[in-house]
């Protein structure tokens, strides 16, 4: 057979067979790394028609077969998650401390014409991604610490990361975690600058544990020092143990709200970060997204 004939044969070979073979080999290798790893990959990285993990072993809340895939869900999924947020013990305590912490959802305050071009408020928001606009609680002023400036602040943010923001199958992309640190840090240091604007000069992220999708994340940040137009901020990110696909039925998870606790043994701190922000000299000419 000529070289041309052999090449034509390869090009005309059914692609389905090659893909299935490659996936099977990859799955076999992952199975050798342990059942916990296999369970994650089966439920997230493999089409449901190829997955055979018993319902008792899957780390996700079981959903009806008649439900549409996450990527095709309507806004009802995000609404369910929004409703569930109010049942998180941390959220309840922050709302009770409303005299100290001011609740906001900054991205919803951005004019739609600007928000559609905003990376977190627009591009990354939607079904399978950031299911709802992040909640943020801001506290400003003195907290009794002698090392903190009068302009220091803290922010606690709560958000959900879906399955369509992964790097390795079954694991959230580390770049997204960096983006979320940067986003919440910016909100935190906004109280430190008269203009309410700060730009990232340096960001260092230490990744501690793999981050899983379909989880609610808690990001705690604190402005540690302010000097003129410079502000230093630190933070840590944790996911709550209860898996929450966007298609969830809120009533089905109300029986075990302990899984929504940040201090639960199943909660995992996935990353820590530090950053330096600088108030730009041209701040007056910029659109103020995070003005308090």
Structure description:
By secondary structure, the protein is of the alpha+beta class. It has 2 domains: 1-62, no CATH class; 63-285, Thiol Ester Dehydrase, Chain A, CATH 3.10.129.10. 30% of the residues lie in helices and 21% in strands. It has helices spanning 3-12, 15-31, 35-44, 76-85, 89-96, 106-109, 112-115, 119-123, 174-189, 250-253, and strands spanning 102-104, 135-140, 153-161, 199-207, 215-227, 230-239, 268-278. Strands 1-2-3-5-6-7-4 form a 7-stranded antiparallel beta sheet, sandwiched between helices. The longest helix is centred in the N-terminal third of the chain and has 17 residues, at 15-31. The radius of gyration is 22 Å and the shape is globular. Residues 51-75 are annotated as: Disordered. This is Thioesterase domain-containing protein. It comes from Penicillium salamii.
Shape: globular
The neighbouring-strand order within the major sheet is 1-2-3-5-6-7-4
The pLDDT mean sits at 76
Spans of 5+ residues with little confidence (pLDDT < 50)?
10-74, 143-148
What's a concise summary of this model?
Pfam families: 4HBT. With 292 residues, the chain is of the alpha+beta class.
How do the helices and strands line up, and which of them pair or pack?
Layout: H1 3-12, H2 15-31, H3 35-44, H4 76-85, H5 89-96, E1 102-104, H6 106-109, H7 112-115, H8 119-123, E2 135-140, E3 153-161, H9 174-189, E4 199-207, E5 215-227, E6 230-239, H10 250-253, E7 268-278
Antiparallel strand pairs: 1-2, 2-3, 3-5, 4-7, 5-6, 6-7
